[in-house]
Amino acid sequence: MSLEKKQSDEIIQVEHLENVQDVQYDPEFERKTIRQIDRRMLPLLGPLLGLLYSVALADRDAFTLGLLYSVALADRSNLSIARTAGMEEDLQIEIGNRYSVVSCLYFVPYILLQLPSNAVLRYFGVRYCMTVYVIGWGIAQLGMAFVKTWEQLLVCRVLLGAFEAGFFPAMTFVITTWYKRHEMQTRLAFFYLSAILIAGFAPILSYVISLLKGKGGLNGWNWIFLIEGLLTIILGIIAYFYIVDFPDRNTFLTPEQTKFVLTRVQQDRGDALADTITAQKVFKHLGDWLIWAYSVMFMAGAMVSYAIAFFNTTILRSMGYSVAASILLTTPPFLASVISAFILSRLSDRMKHRAGFIAFQAMITIAGLACMAYAKQNGVRYFGIFLAYMGASGVIPGSLAYAANNVVSHSKRSVSTALIVIWGGIGGILGTTVFRQQDAPRYINGIWATIGAQLLVLVLLMCTTITLRMRNKRSREGKMKEPLEGQPGFYYTL
After folding, report:
1. CATH number at residue 208
2. What's the mean pLDDT in 311-317?
3. What are the tens digits of pLDDT across the range 178-193?
4. Helices and strands per DSSP (H, E), number in the chain
5. Which of 168, 210, 293, 349 has CB atoms 3.0–4.6 Å from 220's, for a disulfide?
6. 323, part of any domain
7. Is 485 a domain residue?
8. For the chain, how many structural domains are there in total?
9. DSSP string covering 44-100, please?
């Protein structure tokens, strides 16, 4: 029997979920099932530890999502490493704003293809879509190893953005369909932070690869794209067999476990099974200003993260560090951001609260950016990079969870996650363009632009908190014409 036929036969459909509010499950059965889902869906302690754990348990999928997204982050951000490894001289991208153009045009197809890719995800299936995405961007990355001009590099970057467009919103969408609302941020943090943890070591890997300079007639930057592109293609092929689908289509749980997963989601927010996505629904969901507010918050965090990813080595070089030291010093801020953001995400889930934690991390980001701009000592400026990245890395999963907690139905979840990541792409464009070459080495204008984005986050948090609190109050008092989000018993998470 073919793998496709086997998977089709094992798809478990659970219907009749209308009267599940009083259904109870054995706590041990619940704990075991959730732990099994976590191992399958997310990296346990990060992709590398997840890999070791999965080998020990013969659980091949424990690390897949985080590892693939780690590769995506590394592939999109290794441009700055390649720049210091000889690409700047070979392709003359230091002339004018060429580097910024090459960096930011990646985000044009990345933005335009977010919503369409999420809309067709259930139709084509998660496994097929994700395999095409990963192999596609691996081929684009491989092509970058052989470009001769900066224009050719630009074309490859555009293709890279096109194939990576569907990955992050799809994974966010899928993850949020498996868990209850106040379990999401910890899982999203595992997914995102474990990914940036391994991506934080990517500069070291890229530097080691660049030492192959001269081998085979290739420069160091050629080898970076060549090896990392081949690795991505191989992972894409392997991932075809391991990617996890939506709960109602899963093939790794027993029928009883699947019913349990769908029942607890139905009890929590009433959207265990998918509704049909139509153009009318898409436009209706886009008319909700709240999902635009969550999206702008995500943009603010992404703007800082991309700016640091693309200009970190340049800023460190301006402090007087060598090429090797500037590359190696990019890793510690990634590690610190993983620890801080995960701790705060865990607290946010336990307290069932989002806005306050996002506000706190936005203020940390502002403090870090101010240090980067105005501190006179290099040590303080470097500490500013820590603070800025720690804050921004927390805003990203926080915004995702804030949005995921306050929408109901698969169609609205699909639209909201796509819109959020679209704005993340806009943040990438801003992060790579407001840091202009002529403003080096401190990039004061770019830093003030990113500070302004964090201030906007604080304003939006105030507006959303007031709105959601008032809606919850009116619903509890019976003053609403219909239930919140059309779901009886549903209340917004503040």
Report:
1. 1.20.1250.20
2. 79
3. 888 888 888 887 777 7
4. 25, 0
5. 210
6. yes
7. no
8. 1
9. SSSHHHHHHHHHHHT-TTTTHHHHHHHHHHHHHHTHHHHIIIIIHHHHTTTSTTHHH
